[in-house]
Structures are given as structure tokens and as C-alpha cells.
């Protein structure tokens, strides 16, 4: 407030001085007209400059804020992790695996961009690369993602075997491995396809537990039973190897609640009933472990977050999991015109004192998948140790604790950047890092160029 008062006082002082001098000059008629014109021009510039100074100090007196979305343009299934001094983000681009790096959580329009992986043609992972996640495990970095062999266009002979139309019947899970312990400078190569028993699998993630490493993903009951989609878990011997046979794979959540169905409380059949996008969340104080997942249909305004808590000792035992059945724990907010919120990931503020969720949401929900944008908000914890998520909104909100630099995704811009070309090998690995800085253009499609996701018509009609 002292800065604001000082600026205003300065403006008033100069303005009063100008009025007095002008009055005296006009009253005495001692100044030639051309000199008087120059004087008026000069004083006008001086007054405008002072007024502008007063406005600038006023705007900088308050705390730094940001608004949602935090990345211009379409974006879905965001995964954000913090490592050393940077945040790293990856999300569904459909055609490749792209990693972004930023020193701030709340503005990704000027982030560094790295093309981590571009799939070669004619492989089981050539199309529809969705929901990538970047995990540090045993000193290396692993990208777990889902992809398809046929761009969600199975042959009629295969589609006829499904109980409902099943464009994603051939989606499977895959893993990339980094070449070094540095997530940015590493090359990434295909390590393995994860064993999902030759069945549909999307949105896979790692679940770390004292008993080992687990793969949690969205699954079907069997190869051609295309609805509902559920949450399955299997044990792993390492980040690229599933050790559980099909007989031991467990279903830990089914979309059996009204808010997990589309439309709400659908009863005619199980089509469009969905659990997907599982993410591990650990209470840093109590150690309670949760899986926060997405429920209902991702192109619908009712898409939301559900909650499972591990209340037993064995993650492979369905009875060890307790679902919060009272409703979504994070859901649409019509008052703020925010809809279809889901597929969240979790990170912390730069100083580690706050917890934040990163998610996608919609404004124009009638346009479906293409309406999704990436957002972030702080969350806290309830007295019983469960997460306390806020109502989704636009803001402005205070930036994360310890964050320095730009906090406004609406006004950020870049003063430059460099780009180094990256060669793509036959395996799809990209050599070197591409440090392109996004230029803060009005839409992300203009910034990304050829890397920007195309969201092909086949992908848009998935789950129809």
C-alpha cells in the first residue's frame, strides 16, 4: 500500500504544479503561442508518464497471481512432476511423446519443448499415443503410455466380436526408458510393451508400495467385452515387466456408482460406464495412499475425479481398497463455467509446502474432447487424511509458494529462444534435446507447429 500511495502522491503533485504554471503563463500573456504549444505537449507527456508510473506500482503491490488455463490451446491428460529446479509436463499429443520443461507451474506458454519420442510406422504403438507419464525409478526415467496399431480402426471381423462398438480394442501399454539420469538431456527408447494379456489397456500408471511396484490401468473384463472400463492392477518385477499372470490380475474398481455412468445413472446398459486415468496420491503427513481416478466419459461435462483409498495391506486384494461412494471428489463448477474436469496428476510448490493438482477441464463442453485445456489448483488435506480438493475455477489464484517469475498465463510472452534439430531413429527415439521456447502466441497450435496434436477424426470418435 505504501507503493500505491507514493505513486498517487507523485501524480497529484506534478498535476498541481502543471496547473499553476499553466494558469500563470496564460494569465500574463508573456509566452509566444508556438512556445506555449510546445510547453503543453511536454507537460502532457510528463503527466501521462507519471500517471503510468502510478498505475504500474499499483499493479505490482499485490501478490503474484495466475489464471487458468496454464497452457494456451487444446490439452488433455496432463502429467506433471517436479525434479530439481524444474517442472516437467507431458500430455496427450496423439502423434508422439513430447515433454515440456518450465521453472514455474502456472505458465507453460514459454516452456522449453523436447520431442522425446516419435513412433515409427507399422508398429503396435504407431498411433493414438495417449496419457504419457514421466516417472523416475531406480535412477532412470520411464515414460509409460498407451498406443494403438490401427488408429482406432479395427477390422470389421474384429469389431463384430465386441459386445459394443470397440474402436480402442487394440490399445495397449508401452514403456520408454531414458538413456541417463537426466530427464531433459536423455534419449528415450522403447523398452517394452507391458503385458495386459492381449486385452484393451489405457491410462496406465505405476503404483509404488512397500510390497513392490504395480501397474494400475483402465481395463475391460475380457478381450471383447468393451464396456464397462474398470481399474485393474497387476504386479511388476521392474518398470517394464508385469509378473502377474491373468489369473492374478485384480479389478479394484468398477463404475457402479451413478456418477460413474454416462449419462448420469444410466440403467439401460453399461455402455459409457468408465473408470480411467488412475493416479497414485500419498498424504505426506499420514502416509495414507490413494488412487485418484477419472469417472464417466471424458468428452462429457460430467467427467470427474473419484477416490480409492488403500485400507488393507495388499494392493492386489480388491478388499484392500475402499471407494468413496458419496460422489465425485472433484467435479464440474457451472458457476465458473468449468466442466469435464479430470485426468489429474499431482505435484508440489517449489518450496515443497503446498500440494497441487494439474488436470484438464472444459469451457465449451458441447464441443467434446477438443474443448479440453490444462489447468492447475492448490489442494489441501482433511482432518481424516483424505485429500480436500477445491472447486475448479479460472482464478485469479495466488501462485505456488516459492515460485518466482511469471505467474500469469494470460500475459506471458517470450523474448527469444533456440532450437536444435533432433534426428529420429528407426526405433522412434529422438536424439538430443529440442529446446524450442514457445512464443506465447494466441493459440498453442501456432506455437507448436508440426508437433501440435492433430486430434484426428478417428481419435475424436473413440468410444462411440
TrEMBL record:
<feature type="transmembrane region" description="Helical">
    <location>
        <begin position="7"/>
        <end position="27"/>
    </location>
</feature>
<keyword id="KW-0326">Glycosidase</keyword>
<keyword id="KW-0472">Membrane</keyword>
<feature type="compositionally biased region" description="Low complexity">
    <location>
        <begin position="401"/>
        <end position="433"/>
    </location>
</feature>
<keyword id="KW-1133">Transmembrane helix</keyword>
<dbReference type="GO" id="GO:0005975">
    <property type="term" value="P:carbohydrate metabolic process"/>
</dbReference>
<dbReference type="InterPro" id="IPR023296">
    <property type="entry name" value="Glyco_hydro_beta-prop_sf"/>
</dbReference>
<dbReference type="Pfam" id="PF04616">
    <property type="entry name" value="Glyco_hydro_43"/>
</dbReference>
<keyword id="KW-0812">Transmembrane</keyword>
<comment type="similarity">
    <text>Belongs to the glycosyl hydrolase 43 family.</text>
</comment>
<feature type="region of interest" description="Disordered">
    <location>
        <begin position="382"/>
        <end position="433"/>
    </location>
</feature>
<dbReference type="GO" id="GO:0004553">
    <property type="term" value="F:hydrolase activity, hydrolyzing O-glycosyl compounds"/>
</dbReference>
<keyword id="KW-0378">Hydrolase</keyword>
<protein>
    <submittedName>
        <fullName>Glycosyl hydrolase</fullName>
    </submittedName>
</protein>
<dbReference type="InterPro" id="IPR006710">
    <property type="entry name" value="Glyco_hydro_43"/>
</dbReference>
<keyword id="KW-0732">Signal</keyword>
Amino acid at each position: 500500500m505504501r507503493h500505491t500511495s507514493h505513486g498517487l502522491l507523485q501524480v497529484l503533485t506534478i498535476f498541481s504544479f502543471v496547473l499553476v504554471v499553466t494558469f500563470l503563463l496564460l494569465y500574463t500573456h508573456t509566452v509566444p503561442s508556438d512556445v506555449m504549444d510546445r510547453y503543453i505537449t511536454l507537460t502532457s507527456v510528463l503527466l501521462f508518464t507519471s500517471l503510468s508510473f502510478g498505475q504500474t506500482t499499483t499493479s505490482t503491490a499485490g501478490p503474484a497471481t495466475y489464471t487458468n488455463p496454464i497452457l494456451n490451446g487444446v490439452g488433455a491428460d496432463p502429467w506433471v512432476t517436479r525434479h530439481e529446479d524444474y517442472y516437467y509436463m507431458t500430455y496427450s499429443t496423439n502423434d508422439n511423446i513430447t515433454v515440456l520443461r518450465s521453472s514455474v507451474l502456472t505458465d507453460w506458454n514459454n516452456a522449453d519443448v523436447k520431442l522425446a519420442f516419435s513412433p515409427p510406422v507399422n508398429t503396435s504403438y504407431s498411433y493414438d499415443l495417449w496419457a504419457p507419464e514421466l516417472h523416475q525409478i531406480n535412477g532412470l526415467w520411464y515414460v509409460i503410455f498407451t498406443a494403438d496399431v490401427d488408429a482406432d480402426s479395427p477390422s470389421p471381423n474384429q469389431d463384430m466380436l465386441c459386445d459394443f462398438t470397440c474402436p480402442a480394442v487394440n490399445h495397449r501399454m508401452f514403456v520408454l526408458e531414458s538413456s541417463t539420469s537426466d530427464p531433459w538431456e536423455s534419449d528415450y527408447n522403447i523398452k517394452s510393451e507391458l503385458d495386459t494379456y492381449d486385452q484393451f489397456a489405457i491410462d496406465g500408471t505405476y503404483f509404488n508400495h512397500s510390497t513392490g511396484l504395480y501397474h494400475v490401468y483402465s481395463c475391460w473384463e475380457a478381450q471383447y467385452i468393451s464396456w464397462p472400463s474398470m481399474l485393474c492392477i497387476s504386479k511388476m518385477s521392474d518398470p517394464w515387466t508385469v509378473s502377474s499372470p491373468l489369473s492374478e490380475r485384480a479389478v479394484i474398481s468398477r463404475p457402479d456408482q451413478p456418477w460413474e455412468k454416462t449419462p448420469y445413472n444410466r440403467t439401460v446398459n453399461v455402455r459409457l460406464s468408465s473408470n480411467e486415468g488412475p493416479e497414485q496420491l500419498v498424504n505426506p503427513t499420514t502416509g495414507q495412499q490413494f488412487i485418484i481416478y477419472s469417472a464417466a466419459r471424458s468428452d462429457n461435462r460430467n467427467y470427474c475425479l473419484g477416490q480409492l483409498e488403500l485400507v488393507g495391506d495388499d494392493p492386489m486384494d480388491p478388499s484392500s481398497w475402499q471407494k468413496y461412494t458419496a460422489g465425485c471428489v472433484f467435479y464440474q463448477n457451472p458457476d465458473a463455467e468449468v466442466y469435464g474436469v479430470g485426468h489429474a496428476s499431482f505435484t508440489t510448490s517449489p518450496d515443497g509446502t503446498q500440494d497441487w493438482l494439474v488436470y484438464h477441464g472444459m469451457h465449451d463442453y458441447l464441443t467434446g474432447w477438443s474443448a479440453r485445456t490444462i489447468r492447475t489448483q492448490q489442494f489441501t488435506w482433511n482432518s481424516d487424511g483424505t485429500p480436500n480438493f477445491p472447486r475448479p475455477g479460472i482464478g485469479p489464484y495466488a501462485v505456488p509458494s516459492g515460485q518466482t517469475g511469471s505467474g500469469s498465463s494470460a500475459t506471458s510472452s517470450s523474448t527469444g529462444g533456440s532450437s536444435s534439430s533432433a534426428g529420429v531413429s528407426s526405433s522412434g527415439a529422438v536424439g538430443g534435446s529440442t529446446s524450442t521456447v514457445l512464443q506465447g502466441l494466441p493459440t498453442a497450435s501456432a506455437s507448436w507447429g508440426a508437433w501440435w496434436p492433430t486430434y484426428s477424426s478417428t481419435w475424436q470418435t473413440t468410444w462411440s
